[in-house]
# Entry
Amino acid sequence: MAQGRSINQLKVGDSAQISRTITEADIRDFAKVTGDFNPIHLDQVYAEKTIFKERIAHGVLSIGLISSILGNILPGHGTIYLSQEVRFLAPVRIGDTITAKVEVIEIIPEKNRVKFRTTCTNQTGKEVVDGTAWAMPPKP
# Structure
């Protein structure tokens, strides 16, 4: 498995993104793995009585796409995801195609730390997640 990019191979403005269409199975599997069985995610009758009027995906499911980018693409394999500050701006529904993006906004070479802007948008371009993350890229 190839090593990800080291701190010396990164520059402010570098970015990467992935897209995924959220499915019924994704929500069910996420609930099973995390133990989060909130009925807003799993029970249509319950969800119809909420402000969303239908089931929505777990917010943290979108953050998982950001983790995938950091760990597999930018910086990539060997990266340690240190922290995430996030705002959930809009619900993600079954069938939404979510595009997660990370962009390098700060590099601290002496601490081997990189700060990223992290966003997720849906298929209409509406931002559903906004935040920042810190990661430690792999050593050269």
Q: What stands out?
A: The radius of gyration is 16 Å. The chain is about 25% helix and 35% strand. The mean pLDDT is 97.
